[in-house]
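Fold it.
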Amino acid sequence: MTKYDPHRWTDHLFDVEGSMVREILGRVSLCVLWSVIVVSLHMLLPEGWFDLAVPETAHALIGAALGLLLVFRTNASYDRFWEGRKFWGGIVNETRNLARLSSTWIVGRPDLARQILLWTIAFPWSAMYRLRGSRELGNLRDELPPDQVAAVVAADHVPLAVARRITALIEDARADGAISDIQQSQIDQNVQLLIDYLGGCERIRSTPLPFAYAVHLRRALMAYCFTLPLALVSQFGWDTIIVTLLLAYVLFGIEEIGVEIEDPFGTDDNDLPLDEICRNIEGNLRDILPRT
């Protein structure tokens, strides 16, 4: 995620990274090139030779409807972005709670408590990689049993396999008398919530906006932007090129922002800072990691 100070306009007003300029440059350039052709034909050919003007009022009405579609698109994408952030906030809280209870209650078996905390650290890393389509546990392979690491990484759903390891260790602690049944149940609730939050993230990632909506919006957007010079050339003349550039930049940029943030778990400039979140979780939990 690109960090910035919202109070300092001059620090980021002309930034290119994360501003969607690269993503929409081709579409905007094509619109501008088309507007140059339209304006040149209108201004340089004898009057009446090129008359494809679109009624300005009709075009404005279509623009109003298109604006509503774009607003809905962006709002829907931001809802997904913010919901994903809330799920990861829940993962942060539950890993802390799980570590807090385990390190406090399982004092008689520091080896078990340490293993539980290490696998708890592994969970957010494995969840992040799962959402990005790979299988990893972060930099924990040397601190966990190699056979268990191999089994977990080979599983179809790595975070679920990690959660199963945590549950198995909690059961071992109860069987050894290190914790009671009630304490086991309370700790296991944190594990259940971790799975719930990850499931919410997977739902966001695997359910894009409806195809029909995305296609219709893009068709309407292309039709509007490429007929824009025809609606403006009679009134603006050569200035039509500048107006087309500005409007195309704004409209294509809004649509691309929606595309960028609807799946917030990747590595784009505007995605959630999952690597940083995982590092913070690991740092917090290592502070209370029992020594053996």
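Residues 56-105 form the longest helix (50 residues).
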